[in-house]
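Example 3.2
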Amino acid sequence: MLTGLNHLTLAVRNIERSVDFYRQLLGFRLLASWDAGAYLSLGDLWLCLSLDPLRPEGPTPEYTHYAFSITQDNLDTLRRHLRDHGVTEWRQNRSEGDSVYFLDPDGHKFEAHVGDVRSRLAQCRIQPYSGMRFFE
């Protein structure tokens, strides 16, 4: 059956602009590119950018987003780096673990998060969400 997340594909309006964003601002490594796409990597993450001129501009109104792991020591550096490059922050952190929430050039929502599911669940055991149940 399933063993994990294989890759993430994002529809983008401009391949070159998106490749520059992921490489220059976030430190992804470019593996391959072609007229309508690119493959990049960050650690074990395989990211595919796929040209889609029908991709609406700007972020969607719902909460769906993708979170990267980061250490506390590096979070403020990333936050300043993103702000220095005019990257839009779309949300302020309201949960366990420090975070910065930001948009890519096509409005995809991202988060750089300090912590993991274990630290989140530990905090939730202290202050559970409404109706929360644990299954461990």
